Amino acid sequence: MTIIESATVVNKPVEQVYTYLADLNNHQQLMPENIYNWTSTADEATFTIQNMAKLSIKISSRIENQEVTAIPSEKAPFDIELKWTVADNGDGTTTVKHILSADLNMMMKMLASGPLQKLADHQTERLTEVFG
Hints:
- There is one protein chain.
- This protein is of the alpha+beta class.
- The protein has a single domain, classed as 2-Layer Sandwich (Alpha-D-Glucose-1,6-Bisphosphate, Chain A, domain 4).
- The chain is about 25% helix and about 40% strand.
- The chain has helices at about 15-20, 105-130, and strands spanning about 1-10, 35-40, 45-50, 55-65, 65-70, 80-90, 95-100.
- The protein has a 7-stranded antiparallel sheet with strand order 1-7-6-5-4-3-2, with helices on one face.
- The longest helix has 25 residues, at about 105-130.
């Protein structure tokens, strides 16, 4: 299993950050330009990654003010779990981690781990900007 992580601190209370991340409609704002054909509900999202694949994800679990986990809702090129964790820092700020767990063979790991890390980093940066 390949684990890709990106973290940031957001200058908002944990409840506000969790509520935002728990609704997949908001995630379009966190995506890079190479993501298009976005459609979503609070629980599911479908989008296309330019030159790669079409993906459909759904929320598999929500733990209030702690984490949101999404998994593919249709067959994906590889098994992947997208998890956001939020932790109250006690001072009105929230530490947010975006953790991608992907089941990649050696070839896929060489091809996909760079773009997946770039995606995770982009999403945490955008989250900071959204709440900036």
